[in-house]
Amino acid sequence: MGNNIPHSQKGFTLFEAIVSTAVFAFVVSSILGVYVATLQLDQKTRSQRAVTQNARFLMEYLAKEIRNGTIDYAAYPGGSVSGQNEIYIRNQLNESERIYLDGQNLILSKLSGTTSLNSASALVTKMAFYVSPNSNPFTTQRPPPQNQQPTVTVVLELTSNYGQRTVDVARINLQSTFTVRAYPSRFP
To answer: Is this structure's pTM higher than 0.70?
Structure first.
């Protein structure tokens, strides 16, 4: 008599338990897949945003400094002005500024010290300044040099510093040319 199970008791069969476990595992793995894909998309978006914001800041800053200052031709060592990874400028206060690439950071050096212009989230992987003309067009020499306003072409590559995977790294290449707005008198 103790071995009889009444028919009114309900429960799961082994087959129902296996099917419900499989459905649960499928739903959980789908949710995890969406979550992981969302995290990867967020990582890629962060990388692109960091590179874009740094690129915008750097180009705006360089444009402001170059346009409002003058090229300091005398400060270049060896007389080579173009194709360098550094530029020498005299700002509006006639202070000497040097902007140069140090490793993967763009550095501004002034009287008050040095500071990195890019954030830690974006690395400067390539940098070059092309100055034209190669010599100061505003000298007082006779005959006067060709009347040409100095221009600086900035070539810049930024790479994000987010993520370990290659697909998470964002890279942007920029090139822009700025004209110095200073018009000093060439003749005394």
So the answer is: yes
